[in-house]
Amino acid sequence: MPPVFTPLNVDQSVNYEAIPGYASYLAKAGIKSVLVGGTTGEHMSLSVADRKKVIDAWVKAGKTNGLHIQVQVGGAPLADVLDLASYCEKAGADSLLTLPELYFKPQNVPELVSYVELVAKAAPNLPVLYYHIPSMSKVEINMPAFVTAATAQIPNFKGIKFTSNDLSEGAQVLRALKSDQEMFLGADTLIAPAALLGIKSSIGTTWNLFPRLASDILEAVERNDVAKARELQEKLCLAIEAHTVEGPWVPIMKAGMEIVSGIKVGPPSLPQRPISKEARKRIEDRLKKLKIIH
Predict the structure, then answer these.
(1) 144 three-state secondary structure
(2) Looking at residue 16, what DSSP letter applies?
């Protein structure tokens, strides 16, 4: 599931016109679902009004292209998060993801369950998942314990996006989930080893740029072709490293998306800054050397 970029114009307004073509590009590459408003989508930097308009645009594009639309509603004051959750249910989104409260952070499992429960009650008919990204949220709570408690208390709690390199904890989370729940790995560089542990779903920025690589890695694991899985994972890691030396995640990946796909996703949202033309050229040259683009 690629977390989609929010296309922006130079003046920071949202480029809604780019969304239908973007959705079509992903669908043609075999993608079945997208995450709107994740870290990659920068919704934490947008107004609630703009977030709603972006949600509407993706729900419309999703229906046209047969895409499941998951929306991340956290990263805002609680009143706005609940408003967005309720809005998503009415607008026709298919599932929700939520970040923890970002200023008055949950300190323990009961507090985090209580927060997610409030969001889930605002959209009682949608599956709700929790977004574990401790590197950004700084909420470092035991996820197996949280998942178990949330499942017992929240009827529509349906899983987790696990953006952590701790695959030992990830495997414990997978064991704690029920059959109707899902775990999405958020670490693109660990797709192959995670698949060996049974974690088969992922939400990763690079699926925008290289949508077939993830499925190729998973298929190699399914065939027990460990050598091929390792080779493809290495290719993906090198492609990511071609970007990461040039700056922060969203600015470099927005540049990479334009280089690889030609889709105009524009600059990052302020206060983030776009990377230089020179940095862009270096990324392009590295990707050509890796034979990822020609």
Answers:
(1) helix
(2) G
